[in-house]
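Write out the bound-state structure for iron/sulfur cluster.
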Amino acid sequence: MMADPLSYLGVELKRPRVAFFDLTSCEGCQLQMVNNEATLLDFLSLVEIVNFREAMTEKSDEYEIAFVEGSVSRADEVERLKEIRSRAGILVALGSCACFGGVNQLKNQYDLRWVKQEVYGDFPIKTSPVRALDQIVPVDLKIYGCPPRKEEVERIVTNLVLGKSVTMPEYPVCMECKANENICLFELGEPCLGPITRAGCDAWCTSNRRACWGCRGPAEVVNLEEMERIMHRYGFSTETMVERLECFGGFSSQVKKLKGRSAQPVKGGGLAPRKRKKK
Ligand code: SF4
Ligand code: SF4
Ligand code: SF4
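---
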């Protein structure tokens, strides 16, 4: 992928040098990029990829934009991230693990000594509590999602290359879900975090009859009390809501708020809880 410089009428065209890195992750975010056959060639003509372990063997430490997937859970990752930060003009947190710990941060809630013993036996690996990238170094841009939509990554990269501003939807997933003319999953007996989750995935899950678990983190405005009222109205408990909110780490402040008070009956005239429909 490290191609010769492009030129037009003898004038060299400058493409930004882009590198992809992974810390503690499943590599699903990077896979999204290489899976994108339909637009991969166009995308590659826009940038020069100089480091992408999942897709190429060549490596260079000279790049302008670094995409980092995964969260930080080992001391060597802290050093690696600082090194990447020192080289990159723009550091992009790619995916929920990088943005807010993702599914990895669930480990912070448990004593995993027995798991480590079971998996690593006499060769334990020293790990630390999981942290998001911006808990270690400044991050210029966050691309949300587990994994992010490849269309969104391409849009953002195109804007970066063209020097245009990068914007993220501020409204919730429900807006996209309704635009896709889906039947609300609450009506089908599934709890869904679409009302408070940042849109931009085109209601990926709910359009495929899967509830939203909030992988993109909170929308700009989160009405937690109303979300809780909706849950109760359809017969789901606050605990069910918390379980989902905790999954990707983006709603940590909301979880703290909910756990910080004892379970209370719904206030403010919410509708009476409705029984879950039998499937
Ligand atoms: S955000 Fe999701 S897809 Fe990306 S590395 Fe983390 S777990 Fe994998
Ligand atoms: S299924 Fe979820 S995202 Fe869609 S309208 Fe219902 S609550 Fe909103
Ligand atoms: S619907 Fe929710 S869980 Fe699914 S991709 Fe979108 S934000 Fe993530």
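---
Residues 145, 173, 197, 201, 203-206, 212-216 surround iron/sulfur cluster (ligand 3) (CB under 6 Å).
The first strand starts at residue 6 and ends at 8.
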